[in-house]
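It would be a great kindness if you could assist me with a short task in structural biology. The full record is reproduced below for your convenience:
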Amino acid sequence: MDCVKTPEEILVDSAQSYYAYLDEHNLGLEELKIVSATLEQERLILALGGRLFSQDGLVLQVGEKLFELSVCADMQYNQESFVLEISPNYELLESLQRLQNSKSKKSSTHKISPENLKLFSDLKFLVRNVEDFVAKHSLALPSRKPIAPPQIPSYLNDYQKNALDMLFSQSLSYVWGAPGSGKTQVVLFEAVYHYAKQGLKTCVLAPTNSALEQIFITLITHFKQMDFELSNLLRLGMPTQKFLSLYPECCDPNLLIQRGQTSLFAQPTSLKNRLKDAHIIGLTLDGFIKKSESLEVEFAHYFLDECAFAPLAKACALCADNVPITFFGDHKQLMPICEMPPKELKIHKEVNVWNLSALFLEEFFHTPQSVLEKQPTDTPALSHIAELKFTHRYGDNLAQILDSAIYGIGLRGRDERMEIYCIDSGAKGEAQSNVSQNEALAIYKLYKYLHQKSLTQSLGIITPFVNQKKLLGRMIAHNDISTIHGSQGREWENVIFSPVGLHYYLTDSRQINALFGLNVAISRLKKRLFIVCDLGFWQQQEGQFLHALLTQSTRINL
């Protein structure tokens, strides 16, 4: 008879098995191209060959030595210029200075050959961090109830009122809604504001840096309209250069000192003092796992946004301190990325906790073994779910398509119609299934047209395929070209979507993962959607999600 393992034992076993698999198959480690490297006044400046999507798990190889940058340095990334600035600790700086020759040591600025450095994005360190965290803690579902709820503001709709009421009455809850339904702008905002007014600290978490930044920008926008000091918000981790320059009072003070951004009239404060004074503290899940003990902060509530994209294995770290937990998100969108294929997961069932989302947390602690048999597309069995069924983001025409194809909860939108346009690129000529030169050429023409209309400042170009993304990147000088996964957590006024072709795993909406991925791509837009495709082909695909969108579109001839 197999022994029954505790959640902690399963998590430790899963991290060890997953790490071993990644290491054996050379996975979880992606080398990032370094175009140039400069050591300037004890600061390493790296110009990268492409966008850096996360600063978690970065590893710098100097000679034969590896340095985990989250431990050995402070970082600042400029997403517009692809420049990563690193302020190294003594050990890393010493290794970098050894690369200097005797002549250059006399100068404060020194070019380093990119051949002497390698930069990796290493998922394996993040797996090991989970193992280390679980080994130190006893985990259990929270039993402590939140504080008494606020007086519900009158501007909330009934769905939002119910969500806020549930959030303050349950130890574990989930607020589910489509983009624009008020998850962050209304429910999360009112919740953290209520705690702050009581002098209590809350922790706002997200699975990625970009998602965390988007949440904080939303919260800050609302708090700026009120008599509320922005220094009450503290976002830990690596902000973009734009965020740091706009909201320095919300960033780690160590970053401000390193960048010389403290005011001449203000005494720089320590991170310890900022943690003491701030009421709303933001971290990525990986940052929380790595730093929560050293923060020495007592939180009254954890709020995890984009929870459907957060792995269950990482979300379990929130169960260490008997703090109420509320999830926010949409489990009809992207799920966690697990590098272990289904065939191997059947052998190493414990690794399924990296394949499932945070929404399986309640089931995992009640029946841990049975959860290991679950599929990511299974409906999570949480006891307390509040559904937000009205979205201000979409016109009712798009909301009804999304509800019919994906949500099935009676989702409604604004009375006016959403702007949906289609551009016929003509038949795809390539035999290769994941690239279309015709679509890329049509997008190039559309981009020039939108640029003339000043509509490219907030424009995302999204495609399911990496090869199509690369082709578009060679043709169009635009920073925001991404795959569906790369667009997660980001938003634009306008979105151009290039579906390329019917692909079972990526664009065939009869396959549920592809359907949820398409939902992510569409939900990135705020105003206008441009679908550039082989129109004749997709018009024949009745029953497909993209076919339904095209029936509601207005055709543009370029």
Remarks:
- Residues 7-24 form the longest helix (18 residues).
- Confidence is low (pLDDT under 50) at residues 262-267.
- DSSP finds 22 helices and 24 strands in the chain.
- The first strand starts at residue 29 and ends at 32.
